[in-house]
């Protein structure tokens, strides 16, 4: 070994963390035994969370458990957060359960983590446990609770918690709480209820309120409401001027409709899982819409499949090119280039 | 409403109980693959309804798709939006329920019910789990299509199977739809269900129900509903939406004083009642329909003063419709037109229905030229006239003895790709024949016979007309058409009828000949079809032959089978 | 050459290594005679010690044995060589590949101290020749990873593999790769590209490559004509067939296959027959089975089944399964059971291992509701021991080939695939598709 090589130090580790190289940082700790300090752990945990890499997160957690700062509450919170971002609430929960000195923030982190991972029900249960333990929820707790409600589709509960916040805990709701309830309505698709809610707000709706409604209208595909909310938003805050929307449409009444059903036997017949159909189906779900698919078959394509693929090309809106052991079939818009002879 | 979070949560969990959070069909198949391999997938009942995807599913490519579809909707290319959504099911970028809802919403707004239901059927089949918005759209569709029973069946399914609760909007849609479809009893029952489900009483729902009572002239019902609402809300009804109906209830009982007290309670100086545009319109309607038009005018002025878009909307299209009706009832048609035209000043735009309403009133009161002027304004405002518009104008023109113009409106309707029914056509034919315009009638017959399913009386009418005018050749011409029409049967009775017409010139045998001729023609057409296929092949052959090198054909030894081809090729070459 | 050698020996001239190399390669080129003279040449060279201490002679001996079918002798010589150069290694690997000893070839390849482009090419080309295209592509990837620059021979082999597998993605990548190399205008490379594109169903790209070629050979034209024909562009195929002759090239058997295929595709019976006569009469080309196949196809397509049968009965060779398949397919389309039954006797004459025509015949019966007939055919298949070739389809996604057999459930995305199919079949029926009464793949019943 050349004598110039300086043993790698915590500075290298810090640098790797800053550069976002989690794998290298962990390797450095593993292979060369570099010990991280609290700062390093903090940035490492953040990094693993950002990269959503559960594997690295677990490694970092292991090193932390061997380190001297393993009782640092602030860092344990970071770990809970990290596991939440890596979509592993089971690990987060384990860390939480082993925590000796939990504070209210620990609970908040858990509820928020559950909400972010689409596990609002668990978040709400967490809140119940917290109350049973006699902890006094604060204003921030309820923001977490509303987040959990939004994630669990729990519209009614959100309103109940909102009431109890005022009556039971004497917390007067702030704008952020009203926004929290609005988010519950918006995320759950209760758009008209959201409008009513905004009209009944005890303060005049602000631009951010309309902005929130506008984005929920967009998510749920109600263009007219989106435009209306946008207009109000711009009226209140002209700096948010946005594009004027195009509207229009003719009135064509047409009430013909049928709900179809096919009998089981016909369905089974149609479901012959010939290899070309499997290949097409896989090709379809693996490529963007309307892209041409090319299928190669070792035998001649059978008549039934030929007929089916013709119609499929129309249904799926794609050109399907099938090369069998004899010739090519370019299927498009329900027709085949071979002119139905092959 | 639910008393405790536990109750609400219990209800919610019960709905979800059969369901596990399973990955949606193929959307996430790449990300989920690992997880699936780690833990064996729980066995799920394939028929159990799926949980709809959360808002967070709308990210990455699926969000791009959503935005793309929204752009198409804004460009009013609904067909492409629906098609692209369908095609995306067969791709690596599965549309979210949000994207589907966007298309369905747009289709509902444009009354494209059949397209809407087709798409809905498709996504259901494709396993895209519907959310509450989807269900609400479907309720609205069935109710708009006057299928309240289907809507209620769908509602039953939602209650029994869906992993989520209906929303207050669900009940507004259902109750309004039931009332509009004359199913007040069912609507009342549903209101009881809302109570049981623990929802807060909704004044809008009561408004619809009271409207239903008024339609049924049931003033007791109106008051009962109001009292019930008042009690549930703790003695005060702050939402103004019910007051108009309450007034109508009093007026119905000829309790004018009470009606006006109620009016004062709603809009008086010290009133705490909140009035939306809908609430105002209802009150406005109550006044103008009950001999208080002057008061209505005053209220309308006040509404206009209050109107401050976009923040506060005190008037809307409905307000103007009420005013137009009010003026017309007073015989003040000029004022009606004037207030109608003012709509644009208050950022309201008339729709086809409002135009039809006013045009109807004007036509009925001998103001055809004013009606026509309004008709002219429709295209300026980007409002499309519908069948009703044209039929109104056509009828009135006939009444005013302007048959040519009447015919012109009919023609425009057909040109606008609208679909007048047989009755409308019969009216036109009748009108034209009455004034002796037999040739025109025949022209329209020729135009419409391809588009309408003509029945035997319509055929007979035109044949009789032509025969009366001595145009027997044309009668035979119609017979010819009728023989080609698969929709009607040229039976013995019709045969006799035609013979009767022709007999006056002794030409009754010609029908039989015509029928024979027809049979022959049909056989011939079949033969021709075959020949045409052959000809198509020949022309392809000629095209290829012209490409063939002459050397190839010139130097060859005479062999069987090839001489013919040479001839073909040279024929083709020389014929060019 | 051998005669000269004998003369030379008789004249007492001692042959040197050059003589041996020449002679041995002569043997290698004509394995039939080589089998006789090769070993004696080897013996003679051995006497002079040339086979072990002269690497060129040694390599030539290896090549001779390999090509004459004595690959194990070749290995003995290879192992006995005092000095081996890369050519000896490559020759030995090539010998193994040519004799189908893939595992030995790969083993040797991996033992090889220094692999050059030729070594890789030998291996990859060997796989392609053996029809193991996936392996060929896999080794090409290895080659890329090893950082060895492929030469044009490698590229031709790889493009051929792409053509067969229909991996357009990789094909496009190769085209781009070629564009940056010196051999971008190499006529054989371009020919391969034309073939690859047309066999991927991308006839437009094939034409582009063709039109950008600075020079074209008969093969280029043929690839293009056949490409157009099989892709259903009959007019273009015939246009190019015509154009080719205007440019002074004489069409060969392949060109005519293209032209005839085009005619059958467009239903141009008379023209097709005409070309066929012309081929025999003017160009003096003896028709091969594929030409007869086209004519049968031509008649079948036009519904002239009796004429088609006449061709089969009168042609100078036994029909193969392709020819019979054309006619059977026509019987099926038209619903002519009696003719299909008459074809039965020919069926047993062709390779009994091929099942597709039996299946077709069974389906003809089934479509007509003649389940007795269908069962008879199935029984016959069983008696003859005809194995069902599993139908196998592949699709390229992101340059990866995914293969499926009927009823396949091995793919990781199986659930998604089947639910997509279920939805598709539902929509199909809504669109008016009526599934036929067809005999399901027979092995399912066994």
Provide a short characterization of the protein structure.
The complex is a heterotrimer of chains A (342), B (576) and C (446). Chain A has helices spanning 10-18, 22-31, 38-51, 54-66, 73-85, 89-98, 104-116, 120-132, 139-152, 155-167, 175-187, 191-199, 207-219, 223-236, 264-270, 275-286, 303-316; strands spanning 293-297, 320-323, 328-332, 335-336. With 342 residues, chain A is mostly helical.
Describe the protein in words.
- The complex is a heterotrimer of chains A (342), B (576) and C (446).
- By secondary structure, chain A is mostly helical.
- Chain A has helices at 10-18, 22-31, 38-51, 54-66, 73-85, 89-98, 104-116, 120-132, 139-152, 155-167, 175-187, 191-199, 207-219, 223-236, 264-270, 275-286, 303-316, and strands at residues 293-297, 320-323, 328-332, 335-336.
- A four-stranded mixed β-sheet of chain A has the order 1-2-3-4.
- The model of chain B is unreliable at 18-44 and 548-576 (pLDDT under 50).
- In chain B, α11 runs antiparallel to α12 (219-232) and α12 runs antiparallel to α13.
- Chain B is built from 30 helices and no strands.
- Helices cover 69% and strands 0% of the residues of chain B.
- With 446 residues, chain C is an all-alpha fold.
- Helix content of chain C is 70%, strand content 3%.
- Chain C has a two-stranded antiparallel sheet.
- In chain C, α5 (55-67) runs parallel beside α7 (86-98), α9 packs parallel to α11 and α20 (305-314) runs antiparallel to α21 (321-334).
- The radius of gyration of chain C is 27 Å and the shape is globular.
- The model of chain C is unreliable at 438-446 (pLDDT under 50).
- The interface between B and C is medium-sized, with 33 and 28 residues.
- β1 of chain A pairs antiparallel with β1 of chain C.
